[in-house]
Structure formats: structure tokens, C-alpha cells
Amino acid sequence: MTTAVICAAGKGERAGLSGNKVLEELNGLPVLSYSLSAFSGSDEMIVVCRREDEKLILPLLRPYPNARTVHGGATRTESVYNGLKEAKGEIVLVHDAARPFVTKKIIDGCIESVTRYGSGVCAVSATDTTVLVADGKISGVPKRQNVYSVQTPQGFYRDKLLECYEQAFRDGGEFTDDSGIYARYAESPKICEGDRRNQKLTYPEDFQLTERIGFGTDTHAFYGEGEGAPFINFITLGGIRIPSEKILKAHSDGDVLVHALMDALLSAAGLRDIGYYFPDTDPAYKGAFSMNLLKEVLRLVREQGLAPKNVSISILAETPRLSPHIERMKESLSETLGLNENAIGIAAGTNEKLGYVGELKGITCYATALLKKIR
Ligand code: CTP
Ligand code: MG
Q: How far apart are CA 152 and CA 64, in angstroms?
């Protein structure tokens, strides 16, 4: 029988978030939920948490009848000890909830190492050269092949680890992880295969991994014969004027590309659509330059702690020919979106004379946007 002791009782101070980092959303799920899913095959999961976070943590355990909470302590060592005392499994796997990218493969390797060698501490070999420093000077350079970064899970036989913890508490020592305690009071623990992707989320930039995708579309009709088109000879797409015999009907400047893009950005941020923020019944938006509305949309998106990472746009227009203008459209969008031009894809095509686009009745644009977390 195996128990996973999942440590979630920290404050996450270095992450600088408003609450505990293990409850922060990462691509649609709280950080802790990734570990719960990865360890769900264990016979028992003990989530060590702070009393004040328990109300938020309990609902995340609902899908897992084998999971329950135990209250943590002021240090990680105390938290693990509290979890260990409650664990029923013969083997315990101690894991930090702040490592959401743990996989079943890592966990299985860790268990195998425990059954074969009595312990299994996930680790990866160092990529950087590491040095010892004293008084701001390098005092030693260990051989790189001897240097590893230790991760979690760390697996042991429960009774043996618990004994080590009891001794450690009697001695009043401070240890950063289980392998240190086990090495001090039992024996040198065995290393098993971690994964470079199994990183611990510690600082604000570690949370920028969140990405959100959004999709938007817009269509505008051309003026037909005798419909009183205004006396202009261009349409506006991507914030630039493109010579055109056919003129688009619109309340604003009719920039279908920017409208589709704004909806993609708003949608990716989980916000409402452009009709909600800029109603076309509002005279304020009559003849509006859509690039200015795009700036407002970007402000709304940034308010959610998000910013564009890349955008991809596809325009369907039988006329005018757009390919000579694509580079300029990219330049114009690049400036407003704050993205390199290679993060902006624009494709333009006809509709092979089919449908309303093919019959020169209008233009349609599709856009997708990927957002990244900026705080
Ligand atoms: N942890 C714990 N009990 C504590 C302190 C930490 O269970 N008293 C847990 C954290 O929730 C985290 C893991 O141990 O999953 C690794 O610790 P760390 O990355 O230091 O997290 P925090 O202590 O929450 O963060 P910080 O040190 O920045 O406050
Ligand atoms: Mg800490």
C-alpha cells in the first residue's frame, strides 16, 4: 500500500500572489489539482494544508475518495511530519504540491526504487556548473557529473522515515527536505529519475506558464449598386488603408480584421465580446478607428494579468487583392500589440467565387490569439 503525502501548507510568499500558490490557476486548473491527478493511483492521498486554505482545498479533493487533508505546520519539515503520522501506507511518497508537472512515469520509477533499494529520491543531473561560495568567492567546484538537483516525489518506507523525523524533531535540526533527514538518521538515499519539466513553481515568473487561447470572427458587407456607398476608394484592414473599388458597410471604420482579432483576445481572456464593450448603437463609436478600440481591448486583457503571445489571422476576400499589403498590416499590428512581426500570422485568400465572399458581397475574417500570464 502506498500513501502520497502532498505538501501544500506553505504560504507561497516568494510567488507574490494574493493567496497560496498551490491554489493559483495554471492553464484552467489549480496547481494542486495536477498533483492530485498524478497521484490518484495511490491507495491514499494526504494533502497537508493550512487551516485557512482548507475550505478552498476540500472541493478539489472531491473527485478523489482516497484523498483527505491534514493540517500542516510552520515549516515544511513539520508539515511532512504531520502528514507522515497519519499515513497508513507501507510506502510513502512525499511530494510538493508546488510541482504540478509530476508524471505517473516519475511516480512509478520512485516506487520501484523504494521496493528495490529502500528509497527513491527524484533528481536530475545539473545542467549549469555549480560552485561552492564562501565570502562571495568561489571556494570549490564540484565535478558536474556529481551534482544533481533534487526534486519530489521522494519515496521511503513509512516506518523508517517516521523514525528519522522523530529523531530530527528531538534534535531540533532544520532540514529542507526528506532526503536530508533520511541521510542524517538512516542511510544515503538512492537517487531515481526525475524530469527537468518537473520544476517547482516558486517565483512570479514561474507562473507565466499559463496560456489561454481565443477565437474570433467578423464579417462586413460591401455596398451594392445604388446603395449609396460613401465617396472613398479604400477599406481599412489591420489599421491601414487598402485601395478598393468595393467599400465596406460599417458603423466604425469596418476593420473586420481588427474586429475578429479583438474578439479573439477578449475570448482568450474569458471576457465578453466587442459588441458588449463597444455597442454599435453608441454614437461614440460611429466612424471609430478600430485600432484605438484594439488598444482598449488590450488594456482589458492586461487587467486580467494577461498579454498576447502570438496571433494568427485568416482573411477571406475575393477583392481587393491583399497580399501586397500584408507586410504593412503586420507592421501596424506589431506596434499596437507589442509583438514581434514573426508572432503575427496573416493569411489572405479568396473563396474561389463561392458563397457571399465569392459573390463579392463582403469580407470575412477569422482570428486566434494566444495569451500568456504576465502576473
Ligand atoms: N510547505 C508546506 N508547509 C510549510 C511550508 C511549505 O507544506 N510550512 C509546502 C509548500 O506548500 C510547497 C512545498 O512545501 O508545496 C515546497 O515549499 P516552497 O516552495 O518553499 O513553498 P512555500 O513555502 O509555500 O513558498 P515560500 O517559501 O515562497 O513562502
Ligand atoms: Mg517555503
A: 21
Q: How far apart are the first and last CA of the chain?
A: 41
C-alpha distances out from residue 116 to 111, 137, 367, Å: 9, 41, 54
Q: Are 224 and 153 in contact (CB under 8 A)?
A: no
Predicted confidence (pLDDT) per residue in 128-172, tens digit: 889 999 999 999 999 888 999 999 999 999 999 999 999 998 988
Distance 10 CA to ligand 2 centre (A): 6
Q: What secondary structure does DSSP assign to 20-82, as a single string?
A: -GGGSEETTEEHHHHHHHHTTTSSEEEEEE-GGGHHHHHHHHTT-TTEEEEE--SSHHHHHHH
Q: Which ligand is nearest to the CA of 78?
A: 1
Pocket of ligand 1 (CB under 6 A): 7-15, 22, 48, 72-76, 79, 96-98, 200, 202
Q: What is the distance in A from the centroid of ligand 1 to the CA of 174? A: 14
CA of 135 from ligand 2 middle (Å) equals 25
> How far is the C-alpha of 200 from the C-alpha of 94, rounded, in Å?
14
| pTM score of the predicted model | 0.76
